[in-house]
């Protein structure tokens, strides 16, 4: 049966999850193979079923069944392995032809159950599930998918539909943060536009921050550093001194400050979401956070010249750019400004990448996050930095050098972080932030930091 399919859909891989019955020689696994010399059969005539599981969730556009001798069936799909909650996409009906293709209107799906009600006997050659992959599309994201589906369906012929890309970004990137997004997703139907805008900000301009946080929180601790080591190191005074002959020197009272990044308060998902929610509400903090996110993307992917993908670009050029990005980058950034406005436009900055030769990336990433928390606690300094946020990059060597001072002293790594960010109001942290803001906003200081970048990098705790 010939059916014209949209350019963006394809046959998706799946496996047989379960079946009510199979004959010894006609196994259920045969429905995976388009070879007509094999088939699945139950050797019975009534009420049998087969349950298929896709390799990852998808938006299911069509189901193709190459029938052998089933006379009547019905088809249901679901995101969760709970057959009683499955949605019927094809009510009970006769199987009029051997090769049947049923449209399913981009139904969110992970499981497909084909209930064979009558047959002579019940037997199927093969099944194909056709659609668009949507990694991470769990049931919690169902309200988001329902809201975007009308837009996705109206752009079926567009292989680079921005609404589909948005759904894929939201589900794949924010899946690991479902505990922090529980309230947003449960209340999504009450205010879909506002909630979608927030999710798009997290999956778009602010995603590099979440990517770094996820990497740190899921990494395994090196060595045998204990929580006690972290607690002790956080209590010691991080006083740094510089000698007059420009040789790096630490004060005798200083400590190496062994602080595991994955245990640092700055990388806790609950804390980062308090920060990003505040950044979403307040434009100046939002501006600083988006610039910091862009810098983190550059640190993650320093060799990418075209960092941002724009779905409105010419198709051939976009495909080439996307292929190059996927080969060199763990993720790409899509410009959603056409949907949500200029706040979602990723700034295109021409930065001096020679810094990357002397920076300790892990230290700088942690330092940037401390700067953001500190800005959230000090609106005046945040406002100054927001005015010259494009010069944030110039202060990276200083941020690396001042990391011990930027780390707040906390009683333990489980301190509650609220939207006052009181931990970062400590005098030494605010003094470090003041120096960084002064550096980023002063042409004279920026030139000095650039000249001393290599020297400042000697203060990395890893050196």
Write up this protein.
The protein is of the alpha+beta class and 463 residues long. Among the domains are: 10-133, Sandwich (Jelly Rolls); 222-302 and 348-459, no CATH class. Helices cover 39% and strands 20% of the residues. The protein is built from 17 helices and 12 strands. Strands 1, 2, 3, 4, 5, 6, 7 and 8 form an 8-stranded antiparallel sheet that branches. Strands 9-10 form a two-stranded antiparallel sheet. A two-stranded parallel sheet has the order 11-12. A hairpin with an 8-residue loop joins strand 5 (70-78) and strand 6 (87-94). Helix 8 packs across helix 12 (379-387). The chain is elongated and about 85 Å long.
Please tag this protein with its features.
single chain, 463 residues, alpha+beta, Jelly Rolls, 8-stranded antiparallel beta sheet, two-stranded antiparallel sheet, 12 strands, 39% helix, elongated
């Amino acid at each position: 049966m010939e059916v014209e399919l949209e350019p963006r859909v394809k046959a998706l891989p799946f496996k047989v999850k379960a079946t009510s019955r199979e004959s010894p020689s006609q196994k259920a696994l045969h429905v995976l193979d388009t070879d007509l010399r094999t088939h699945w059969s139950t050797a019975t005539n009534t009420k049998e079923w087969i349950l298929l599981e896709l390799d990852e969730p998808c938006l299911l556009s069509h189901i193709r069944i190459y029938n052998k001798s089933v006379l009547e069936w019905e088809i249901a799909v679901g995101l969760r392995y709970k057959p009683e909650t499955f949605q019927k996409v094809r009510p009970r009906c006769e199987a009029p032809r051997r090769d049947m293709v049923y449209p399913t209107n981009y139904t969110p799906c992970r499981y497909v159950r084909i209930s064979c009600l009558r047959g002579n006997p019940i037997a199927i050659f093969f099944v194909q599930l056709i659609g668009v992959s949507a990694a991470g599309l769990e049931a919690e994201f169902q309200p988001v998918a329902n809201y975007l589906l009308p837009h996705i369906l109206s752009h079926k012929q567009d292989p680079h539909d921005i609404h589909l890309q948005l759904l894929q970004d939201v589900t794949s990137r924010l899946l690991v943060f479902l505990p922090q997004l529980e309230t947003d997703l449960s209340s999504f139907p009450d205010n879909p536009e506002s909630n979608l805008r927030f999710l798009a900000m997290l999956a778009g301009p602010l995603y590099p921050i979440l990517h770094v946080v996820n990497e740190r929180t899921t990494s395994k601790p090196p060595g045998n550093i204990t929580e006690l080591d972290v607690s002790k190191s956080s209590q010691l005074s991080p006083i740094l001194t510089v000698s007059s002959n420009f040789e790096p020197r630490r004060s005798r009272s200083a400590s190496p400050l062994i602080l595991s990044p994955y245990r640092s308060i700055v990388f806790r998902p609950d804390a980062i979401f308090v920060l990003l929610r505040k950044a979403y509400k307040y434009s100046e903090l939002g501006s600083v956070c988006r610039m910091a996110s862009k810098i983190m993307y550059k640190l993650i992917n320093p060799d990418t010249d075209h960092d941002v993908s724009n779905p409105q670009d010419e198709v051939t050029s976009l495909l080439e750019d996307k292929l190059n990005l996927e080969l060199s980058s763990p993720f790409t950034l899509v410009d959603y400004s056409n949907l949500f406005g200029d706040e979602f436009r990723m700034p295109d900055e021409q930065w001096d990448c020679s810094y990357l030769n002397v920076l300790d990336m892990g230290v700088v990433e942690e330092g940037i996050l401390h700067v953001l928390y500190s800005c959230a606690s000090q609106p005046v300094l945040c406002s100054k930095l927001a005015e010259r946020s494009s010069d944030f990059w110039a202060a990276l060597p200083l941020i690396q050098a001042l990391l011990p001072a930027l780390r707040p002293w906390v009683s333990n790594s489980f301190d509650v972080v609220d939207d006052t960010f009181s931990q970062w109001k400590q005098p030494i942290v605010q003094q470090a932030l003041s120096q960084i803001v002064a550096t980023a906003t002063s042409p004279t200081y920026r030139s000095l930091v650039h000249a001393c970048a290599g020297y400042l990098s000697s203060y990395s705790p890893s050196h």
